[in-house]
Design goal:
Six copies of one chain form a homohexamer. Chain A has nine helices and eight strands. Chain A is of the alpha/beta class. In chain A, β7, α7 and β8 form a beta-alpha-beta unit. In chain A, α4 packs across α8 and α6 packs across α7.
Chain lengths: 256, 256, 256, 256, 256, 256
């Protein structure tokens, strides 16, 4: 942490991890992230080499976590000021917070905390039923589950999200159910692959008189990381202690 | 809300309310706030005319809320993009969120939510015993109270905080008690009048091997408001509905 | 507190505050309250001069709280034994409990606590959607929210409650939904303006085989205050400490 | 339930059950109860014939519950308006609420609910360590356990409570520990055998600057029952349904 | 507790209490229990003499608890290694745990804890509406209520459960409602009289694509007791202290 | 799942995973586990090839999870009836439960659930401070955290646990603090490396009048798995859905 709290120098370099093994999401993610960062922030976006093509299970998260961790550790060595891991399962975030001192942020926990500020109850609208228990568990460990109205799914896999028309229609209809049946007062998009749709969703809902905030986790995640870095804040080393030294033989295998 | 989500225009005008009747805190607050805002942000700092000299009770909050509300409503009419109310009791925040559409933020709830992200448990170190129940209640309504390790006080009234030496000594000693006895992993300064001391507190604690984040609510509150405005987010109008029209005869009395 | 616990003297003088600016509710409230108090109790009913015509928002509560506080402080000086504030938002109750030693009671928290004694889960049936979050928040701060099945509204504003036929029909229908859909085992009327209807509601429900207690908050609030006074009990001065002395310039403005 | 809600007739007959097998507590309980009831209330105090000499375990409660139930059922047949069971374990209260329609009240749950109204956190000071888990469990089933600061014991058995000097000294010292160490803002006496000491305890504490309400459960229990009867309220028959008809062969054995 | 933790001797003698006054359930229970115990376990099944014909209310539980306690105490004197009380209300379990040192187990709490391990949320499907509050309360005192999706009933009294066809149909239909409407991921049969139906229910549900575990409480209860005994574990004597000595006159009356 | 619920055939084959990269714990674990399994159970104990030498951080868990998953999947293919993963962090348990149908069990969650049955509150005594937040989080996701009195550490790393004298002394002293200061009524050993010490700890504590159950997680974990298998129970496929098919490129790298 090199910032001086009394010095108006908001320049920072952030690492963005796209935690899937295909490169094709790197460029869209960079474009998306650059819409939101401030002029003083520089981002470097990078995908993982080993893991899975998308994340739709705890199993996928575990398979991706190793290479996420490699990137996070390298980012700290290279002088980055913080890391944002762009997936709504917050994969590797807890583990990474142990091994580095710079702040590590995922979009899920943070989106829920901000939703909890803006509204009495919020719902998350995600991709597949498979990830519902996983997102509920993030609400539980964040201790904000009393404010979680529901997690709903549009029943479209991550790799099918690009057909925007179908996605928007499904989001509008699940969002209305979340408000009417579950009592949601705010909505969180439940997958970082739901790019470019938050604004239109909020507009569509407002036209039908559902005036609720829609949180776009990619935008929120990167802005929240900027906020932490600018305030020289990072995860507590009492909650995330550095792992003791010992023999660990996975890295050599993967690096071969 | 006039921002366009797809347009990289982060210019914004924020209103900062100093919710006490003396002008002498306006200039120091402006200086403090300007340390943290980004280059594109413009702030206007203003104190209230009717209320109390400091806020150390629910009673004080209530007495100040009226003139806070007047300023908030005027700020929206004048095109401000958001309002930050600079007091750890979050006075008038809930009421103000009903009457305007622009985001209204206080430092207390937000500091607790960020502390909840950074650590398993956090403590708030405040001024007088009087405000402990009030701060505990903010943790309860925020539904984050399971992560609140304790609220402790340095036993110095708001208007005595300017003797920094005594304040720092007391903060260090209560912070250590919060960590050792209450299990806190992060700390939140419990009064916005504790200016300029967060960094030194964190440094002093670290020298004694208490490596925990210290959240400075003034800095966090204004940065969080910037984040909301830049993402075009505001409080839910389902949780904070506009009050119905009716006869209200207080304003004319105060405006006389 | 002048009572002697060992002396069978239940005579007491209670102040009832009607926290709206029109006088027309004073007489009906007095009549209603006098149905329930014991022979030894004397009540004085009084409305506020500055505030709002009805309370349907946190904003309204804040506007009314100032003049409520003035009346409460005066009541203590004049030797009243306790104060009952007749509105289901419990406006000014927390603040008033700080500035006086005599017990101050509102109907909302108390109705919820008694409902929690009589049943596993209860619902509140209130006037407008606007006040639902506010009533939910009272359940949260009372820490009894796990027993709150739901808050429902009849969608009639406070000033329209006097058409009893429509009110009763709407109450019966929302009450049945609360029992069937939300699992309520007891009901609380959610506005003190719902006068004279509790008994008929309970009867109508019973005829349709919905045998659940219906709590009428006006009756309960005043009886609960009598109970506290007769037992020489009042709010804890550890939770509601006296506000420290300081400059406060609102009163002079209002008193002009 | 024979009261008419619109009729100012507060006359009522209440049954008080002393749930131990010795008669010697009947007269003192009657005297105690009569200090608190209103002029229109008539009480009949009666002890059980089969059970235990005192209640200091779940086992004791179970042994006493049978004869308590017999008395409660008889009380309803004889036209009593409500029943108060005078023991801080609330023995037989839940079961009795199923078999009769008139309100049945014990002092424990009710004392905790009132303490929860008067203060942020409360402690119960009871007789022996044995009953601490039992009292904690009442706080859990009442769903008010977040407000329970602690249950402490003076380490004096029920049948040794009559030496008032020793009792008062022990109560003062445990009460101060409850306030200082556990953060209690209100106190509840944890055994109905602690007669005549609440007022002196509160006075002693106040002299040492511990200004907290002390709830005397006997007084509160009987007054609360009066309140329910006067408002025509009773336990919900959805939570406490009448047990279905079937063969039950215990009564004949006990009645022989 | 006579087992030696280091000695592979799993022989044990368990007492099974059938807590109803008819003998006709003893033989079926013995057959059922013997399907699940290991080869080294010996069981003795016994019904009570005084109590009720079935348990469908807190009142019934109380009437049966006395004779359950007599059997439990005798079982310990006769050298049994543990006691299983075969009723989903866990009648007498808490009381019995105080008076003996050998482990005492009922099926309800244990079924809920295992369901909480296997799934995010579970539902209990029971006999009559009467016992729903009672089962909910067991979830509350077990502190696992956040994982309880619902308690539903098939509306068949205990003594009508033997018509298996009707029972299975009703169970299938309520189970599907529990999954679809309440979000249950696992199911618990809510009455020990639902014998021999768990396996067929799970199969029927699976055929309709409801692949969820179905917990049969009789099987689980006896296996869990075996587990405790084999590990030399029993209830904590800090939570379940031995009741102090005193006069208790019920037993002589019942034994006459 | 091949068992027939109606057939008294308790033979089963269980896989035990020792989730560290050194072989030296395999033989002691096998001996330990064989003390507790029933005569019909066959176990196969196996350590991982890639991971860490011990588990003392979330980071270590993540590094070990990959090879744990490989073993679990292979075990199902080879016809094992269940898998027990022998580490108090329950590493890989949640992920493994998604990819197989046979039950997967770790000791931590299960020990906490059984402790919650036996006592009002329990403490876990673990190795290093590093793992305290991790164990607290297991209590949170298990939703049993209200019963967790504390997690304490003996400040001995996993690889230093073999000096039994020092370990026992440290366990006795932390256990007494857990009972006295934190109110624990039961204790759970917080590391599966604490072999052979549970019985002596319970004895030492009892001699000093601390009569509380001590749960040895290795013994409990394997017995609990036996219980699930014998009852044909496994994790819910609604909570742990099978991950969708997709490209995953980690395995080939590790298998090279």
């Amino acid at each position: 942490m090199k910032k001086d709290l009394n010095l108006k120098d908001n320049r920072m370099r952030l690492k963005v991890v796209v935690p899937v093994i295909t490169e094709k999401f790197v460029e869209p993610t960079r474009k998306e992230v650059e819409k939101f960062i401030s002029g003083d922030t520089e981002v470097d976006v990078q995908n993982i080499r080993y893991g899975t093509a998308s994340i739709e299970a705890r199993y996928d998260e575990m398979l991706c976590a190793l290479d996420i961790l490699r990137i996070v550790k390298k980012a700290e060595r290279e002088g980055f000021d913080g890391v944002y891991i762009d997936c709504m399962g917050d994969p590797g975030v807890e583990e990474a917070r142990e091994v580095v001192d710079i702040p590590v942020v995922g979009p899920a926990r943070v989106s829920m905390l901000v939703a909890a500020d803006l509204a009495h109850r919020f719902s998350v609208i995600t991709v597949l039923k498979n990830v519902i228990p996983l997102l509920e568990e993030i609400a539980v460990t964040t201790r904000i589950v009393e404010k979680l109205a529901s997690v709903r799914s549009v029943d479209i896999p991550v790799l099918g999200l690009e057909k925007e028309g179908r996605l928007l229609t499904a989001l509008v209809s699940e969002s209305k159910r979340a408000v009417n049946r579950d009592g949601a007062h705010a909505l969180v998009l439940g997958c970082t692959g739901m790019r470019g749709v938050a604004k239109r969703l909020q507009k569509s809902l407002k036209e039908e008189d559902y005036n609720v905030p829609v949180i776009y986790p990619v935008a929120l995640g990167i802005k929240y990381l900027e906020l932490l870095v600018s305030l020289n804040l990072s995860q507590s080393k009492k909650t995330y202690m550095h792992p003791p030294e010992k023999e660990r033989n996975v890295w050599e295998k993967l690096e071969k």
